[in-house]
């Protein structure tokens, strides 16, 4: 992995430099966008961001897992998991310059 992790503060700083909003308004904007996305996902609604990708919720059923140390079977409870599917534009962007060979 190259570079550093992108944080909320980095996103807010990008809004400050590119849009020109004051720092506190930029931070509030980033928070509101993230709250809207997470709230929609928590409600079970998919989130689609054009040219970026889609976030959704998938239901996983109950299954049996194993403790890797002991080999003991352990039931894994049903749960909802977050899934992300990048758009073709995003796939092309992250693979730009990477030649298989």
TrEMBL record:
The keyword Transmembrane helix does not apply. Heterodimer of an alpha and a beta chain. Signal peptide: none annotated. It comes from Hyphomicrobium denitrificans (strain ATCC 51888 / DSM 1869 / NCIMB 11706 / TK 0415). PROSITE patterns: HISTONE_LIKE (PS00045). This is Integration host factor subunit alpha. SMART domains: BHL (SM00411). This protein is one of the two subunits of integration host factor, a specific DNA-binding protein that functions in genetic recombination as well as in transcriptional and translational control. One of its GO terms (biological process) is positive regulation of metabolic process. It comes from the Bacteria. Belongs to the bacterial histone-like protein family. InterPro entries: Hist_DNA-bd, Histone-like_DNA-bd_CS, IHF-like_DNA-bd_dom_sf, IHF_alpha. Keywords: DNA recombination, DNA-binding, Transcription, Transcription regulation, Translation regulation. One of its GO terms (cellular component) is cytosol. SUPFAM superfamilies: IHF-like DNA-binding proteins. The keyword DNA-binding applies. GO terms for molecular function: DNA binding; structural constituent of chromatin.
């Amino acid at each position: 992995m190259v570079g550093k992790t992108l944080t909320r503060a980095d996103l807010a700083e990008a809004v400050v430099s590119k849009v020109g909003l004051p720092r506190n308004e930029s931070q509030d904007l980033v928070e509101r966008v993230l709250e809207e996305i997470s709230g929609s996902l928590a409600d079970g609604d998919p989130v689609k961001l054009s040219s970026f990708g889609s976030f959704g919720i998938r239901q996983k059923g109950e299954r049996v897992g194993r403790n890797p140390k002991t080999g003991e079977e352990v039931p894994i409870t049903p749960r909802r998991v977050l899934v992300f599917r990048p758009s073709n534009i995003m796939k092309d962007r992250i693979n730009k310059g990477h030649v298989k060979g």
